[in-house]
Amino acid sequence: MGKHLTKRSEDYSKWYNELVVKADLAETSAVRGSMVIKPYGFAIWEKMQAELDRMFKETGHQNAYFPLFVPKSLFEAEEKNAEGFAKECAVVTHYRLESDPEREGKLRVDPKAKLEEELVVRPTSEAIIWNTYRGWIQSHRDLPLLINQWANVVRWEMRTRLFLRTAEFLWQEGHTAHATKEEAVAEAKQMQEVYATFAEEFMAMPVVRGAKSESERFAGADDTYTIEALMQDGKALQAGTSHFLGQNFAKAFDVKYTSKEGKQEHVWATSWGVSTRLIGGLIMTHSDDAGLVLPPKLAPIQVVIVPIFKNEEQLETISEAVEVIVKELKAKGVSVKFDHRETMRPGAKFAEYELKGVPVRIAMGNRDLENGTVEVARRDTFEKKTISKDEVVSYVADLLEEIQVNLYTKALTFRNDHITEVNSFEEFKNAIEQKGGFVSAHWDGTEETEEKIKEATKATIRCIPNDAKEEEGVCVFSGAKSSKRVLFAKAY
Amino acid sequence: MGKHLTKRSEDYSKWYNELVVKADLAETSAVRGSMVIKPYGFAIWEKMQAELDRMFKETGHQNAYFPLFVPKSLFEAEEKNAEGFAKECAVVTHYRLESDPEREGKLRVDPKAKLEEELVVRPTSEAIIWNTYRGWIQSHRDLPLLINQWANVVRWEMRTRLFLRTAEFLWQEGHTAHATKEEAVAEAKQMQEVYATFAEEFMAMPVVRGAKSESERFAGADDTYTIEALMQDGKALQAGTSHFLGQNFAKAFDVKYTSKEGKQEHVWATSWGVSTRLIGGLIMTHSDDAGLVLPPKLAPIQVVIVPIFKNEEQLETISEAVEVIVKELKAKGVSVKFDHRETMRPGAKFAEYELKGVPVRIAMGNRDLENGTVEVARRDTFEKKTISKDEVVSYVADLLEEIQVNLYTKALTFRNDHITEVNSFEEFKNAIEQKGGFVSAHWDGTEETEEKIKEATKATIRCIPNDAKEEEGVCVFSGAKSSKRVLFAKAY
């Protein structure tokens, strides 16, 4: 079948790349670092979008759309932000092609069509959006302004990996404006919690909620709140971030409002985003050597039904019974596929749906028909059970919930088993190198120590957990006093 | 209020621009020719997307996502297509900015970060998609391949107008591959019909289904099927197109399949798209001098409820009664807004929701409370009616349907009144100049005549209607024989 996967224990990175391609999620494209998201992968993204969009709207946000291009003079207005992204900006300099006089039938850039001002392809949209907000915000009555955008962005990354790091990616970016610092901080924290809820309840991916250290903050932010997940290979994945931007953009773009007291004040800002990177996180949280494992809440196909038949007549009889089950499952809101292709054997179909991570497989053969049963197999544990045809719908509905819970529990156990408290740099290095996962350690709070630890171990501070307890201690590296443990890990 | 609109009879174009901005649909941006779609405008687009996406999926299509950038060498592969779009391509030539040594705190393009091959920002995605399809299609079993993409595209237009013609716009583009010519033609025609159904049933915008003349075809297509709508000012709007692409892209990108008979054959292609331009068509089909008029099926807010009160206590009593109505309307799937702002008078609210085209307004005051009634006003005819509180929910549900039908009927009557059959060039010119609308005329089928008529009258062939009858006649311009009438009009 050409579908054999490298084992995770052999080469995790190779397993990941193969799985993304073989499960029809995505593939590399002719454009350096850009991927094609294939229909099956995009269907997962659509499910993610639908849930996130609902959650954003329930918390009062509206969608809008801002330009792809940012004039260079706007882009550079907020200096830290500009500096942070300058090295990875794709830049449009011309607006026309013409026939190439030296290569018949070919085109070249028309040198006469040079733009007066170069346009940056948005790596993030704060600049163009805050330039727009200046016109939208006059009074305290215009606040809060709660906007989200679903869009593509471009960051010219040198080392790319499907979903995890691509030159172009799809994401949502929320951009909000508030009258007070307190409201903006509350908003940024609220969106961190929305992301965490989404990750845990829908992706079945446990996350640590925390704040970034200064050196890991978003360029232009006063604070970055993050959710950090742990992948099966012991590396961390930053899965979503929410930024408190202070008044940095409001000042750079001169966005002021008249307060209730009649005073002119700069507004306070947040921005927050998650991207198609989440699909990479989903894969590396649950999948196994047989292929994808998808949580039922995000699986494009939740149940597949495979008939086992020797001839047309058998297929027909089985199909009649299956159609009843299909109808009832659909009525319960379960997405179900009846795969009655005659060009493929049941065993090959089983392997295909295992590879694609369909949570539940129902098989029905001639003997089942006689006995009034079906065989139900779950993808997460490979367990099979023979169930009465009449009970299969409610059984499957319950099973889908059980699988969702089981995946989360399993991932949570793995994650919790991979948080190691250390009290010396020796222990730190051992934990990072031999066990992987998060290392919980005291840190002296300086960028210098952070940098030295990174040089020595490749581990970075993933976050200062929201629930970190006050605890007297000394920095594992410098020995200086510390009052909190932070989480380190190697990361994607 | 600064909300006064220019009258349509004074200056239709000015009315349109003012309305788009004042109704909070969109505005121009800092990027030449690109617009910002504001939340209210974007909410209409979301409603359009949801319905279209459902219709695409019901006809067997799946969504996917392809790169924004197209390497120049791929872009130029299908020569007619490349030639057609070359003059309006934004081109990325560099991938990095650096500090400008001559302007402190400013950035410039890093000359060392020049791309080896320039990247075209997609004006349409045939090239990148067909280059990808080569890897996806081997056998007749891989066909048909039915894919759609929701995306942004860029066409560097010199004269832009909000929604109607912008440098960047949002659209969907379907790209399908088929084993036979017949299947591809059937697909292209099916999608034309999907668009027509959407326009008529959801936008309440009647359209003529037809084929484009050769000179108006999509660059690279063998046939372009179009839906053409008529705006209130007598100009036509091309609202959606579906292209039969023959084997042009399959040959340019060498996409072949093995047939059932074991032969290698080039596949057959279609592509089809509608864009945010539809919002422009929606506006110019229904709206009036008081503002937007939205068909209920696409209105972000279908019903607004405005309380009329003199004090807090009255507002509270009214609110209690209103909340019951709100709940019942929502249960019926009606989107309803209760506007209880105390900072704005009812009259100002009425004007605002008229401007924004909310189909139904319910007002409830103290006297209503005493009588157990509410006042229901419809946006399309401005009629008002006093209705018993207990009947208002079913009354409003029916009224929304009635408004949807009324808008379509009104637009259809206007459109039919503006199709003029002419039999001489004199009549042709009179009809185009004095009456506007579609002119149905015999045409000799030559590009030369088409061009001359355009020069003389600015009218172009909008389409050869699908339902054009065979009819002996002579071309209004050349006098040569013709067997069919075609539709001419000035167009957006």
| Name of the CATH class of the largest domain in chain A | Alpha Beta
Task: Specify Rg of chain A, calculated over alpha carbons.
Answer: 26 Å
Largest interface: A-B, 66 and 65 residues
- pLDDT < 50 runs, ≥5 residues of chain A: none
Total beta strands of chain A? 27
Give the helix tally of chain A.
14
Tell me what the structure shows.
Two copies of one chain form a homodimer. Chain A has 492 residues and is an alpha+beta fold. Helices cover 35% and strands 27% of the residues of chain A. Chain A contains 14 helices and 27 strands. An eleven-stranded mixed β-sheet of chain A has the order 3-9-10-16-13-12-11-24-27-23-22. In chain A, strands 18-17-19-20-21 form a five-stranded mixed β-sheet, with helices on both faces. In chain A, strands 4-8-5 form a three-stranded antiparallel β-sheet. In chain A, helix 2 (39-58) packs across helix 6 (181-201). The longest helix of chain A is centred in the C-terminal third of the chain and has 26 residues, at 392-417. The radius of gyration of chain A is 26 Å and the shape is globular. The mean pLDDT of chain A is 97. The interface between A and B is large, with 66 and 65 residues. Strand 5 of chain A pairs antiparallel with strand 5 of chain B, so a sheet runs across the interface.
Summary of the model, kept short:
2 copies of one chain form a homodimer. Chain A has 492 residues and is an alpha+beta fold.
